[in-house]
Amino acid sequence: MRKHGPLVDDLRAALSPERVRDGATELSLYRRDASNMEGATSVVCLAESTADVQACVRTANDHRVPFVARGSGTGLSGGAVPLDGAVVIATTRMNEVLSVDPANRHAWVEPGVLNLDLSRQVDVHGLHFAPDPSSQQTCSIGGNVANNSGGPHCLAEGVTASHVFAIEVVLPDGTVTMLGGEDPEPDGYDLRGVFIGSEGMFGVATKVCVKLTPNPPTVQTLLMDFMSVEDGAGTVSDIIAAGIVPAAVEMMDQLCLGAVEAYIHAGLPVDAAAALLVEVVGLPHGVAADVDRIEELARHRNVRTVRIAADDAERALLWKGRKSAFGAIARIKPNYYLHDTVVPRSKLPAVLKQVYEIAARHELLVLNVFHAGDGNLHPLLVFDKREPGVMARVHAAGDEIVRASVEAGGVLSGEHGIGLEKRDMMPLMFSPVDLAAQQALRSAFDPHGRANPGKVLPSPATCADVQAVPEGAWI
Amino acid sequence: MDLTEFAEEIGDTGPVTIGGLATRGGPVDGVRPVMAPVGIESIQADEMTVRCGAGTPVAELDDALAAYGQCVAVPPTGTVGGALAVGQSGIRRLGYGPVRDVLLQTRYVSARGEIVKAGGPTVKNVSGFDLCRLLVGSRGTLGFLGDVIMRTRPRATYEQWFTTNDDPWAIMRALYRPTSVLWDGSTTWVLLEGDPRDVADQAVAASLVASDPPGELPNGGRWSMRPSDLASLRGTGRFVAEIGVGIVHHELPAPVHRADEAVVELHLRIKEQFDPTGRLNPGVTVLHGAH
Questions:
Q1: Do A194 and B98 lie within an 8 Å CB cutoff?
Q2: Which of B70, B96, B124 to mutate to test the interface with A (most CBs of A within 10 A)?
Q3: Is the reported ipTM for this assembly greater than 0.95?
């Protein structure tokens, strides 16, 4: 019979043997997320309750080993990749919607509830959860909280931090407490706000009180195509400057349009340089006025055709085009690396031009499908990893894209987070003094550094040997 | 005064307090006061962002933004820095969102007298820990805001207050995203914004009658309640409650909430990390039992 170490034995005693896994297959599965980075875990715990999570955290502390909370594992920045044999605490089994209050538009959910499942469950009340990452069919609310996730419809509604009232958390020392509250101005610092987007380094969310948003009575979806990227991007700035904040403004470039059309046959304008997918929601007269104004602004930017979805089926088809971009690119090359930066909207044309130049210089194909409305770029480098030397080019191109974005007055990440991927690029945006302040907040929550260590904050040069960056990490 | 001078004035030793227009209590008595830089640096209408000194009066900022058809979702009085540091939202929070969602980036001065940047200049950003949300509502106990970049929003081209005696929760169900719903236990006031035809249709659908906004709100205390508990306010005295939000403007002081021990402990540790000698706004309390 296989012998387990004392850590595994203690976890098995605290949970149940069936829910504490250290078989080779599980350890292999849980050592990575949806990025291309791998770490190493010593044991995987399948938590089913707050008490389970607390027991895991306490046991990890007793053994002085780090722990990493994990939802669906759809993260793209390596945030849930366990380092140094960390205990993985999976919250996927904590997937109950605990209560829904339609009158006051909030719900209490467990962290393993899937994003789209939540919206489906509250649809009967005419409500939905506004953040809608592209991975919404599989990503969990706990992961959304950890990453402060966004999505196309966050242009008007804001990202996850604007949609969470309260979080029950297990703090890094194992204490259970509540951050924020159902009331609007709880006393004290906004600890709820700082926990959201802390990438698992301030503790583990075990219950989340989310804000629910009313479904709009009127929705109009427009597909507009342009013969130049500049005209498309210029239209985005013009719409915003005109005081219109659509629910979503997405852009696809020519290569992306071609790939998606070949995949779903939605009648997309494959010969256009770029297309904008714009959605306007609200009350009927206001929506009609906004649609007219958007069409007018697009005409001034030489829009070629404007297609307005006639019904829900056509709208769904247009959105399917947007959301299946990542599946479609498999037709071009077997592998892709998806980037995530934000630039000022007015800099979109210039930065996109740089992105094309960078990709060409590294002999890579790049597709762009992104949240143009908030300047959130998602350059998608496509490649075949069997090609010798290609990974070095992919990483070099990615590095240049991030630098170009920050130099244009942008930021490192709009929704994927820093994780391991961009940890060592943080100095591009922040001085040592700025980073020390972030470290101070981390130290207040987790003085011993047990919760998901090695992420977000670059190690000071003096202790660069504390953790090795795993194979495949792009830094 | 620029940010560097502001930092030098704050220095790194001795108690110091921050003042503005004294609309939210003013600086701490008997402590050396400093004022944040004043002035609008840039308005980027097509980014929907504005950059200004934290000492800029909200009214001045609002006038400047009006020329672009935009506004910032902070209450209309005092300075920008004061509005953010106190973190209390205005009565349009139901439609505009809370003050804490407004701040994108700040350069603040720490207890060590250093200029620290928190957040980033773009409307979307998840790069690093969210120090902006830590600072909003921290009442100058962790750092003094120097300059800020804030998210703007379109200014409504048309708005109208209405009144009704119907149950405010029925009104909430009948309307699509009102900007404000206020209730004093019998009368409900509703603020609608948008296309005038939509506003008129909504008013008819919910049997609303056009009216003036509610008069001066009771100001004995600002209560923060679960929105689902607001019905229990009947009979507690004179109040106006923000339905769907949970803020209550009451004639009586707010009841004191007992904070959870772990939350108190986190506050103490954060204060210790950011201001170990307690020199910033000494005596100011953000949480009962944490100072």
A1: no
A2: B124
A3: yes
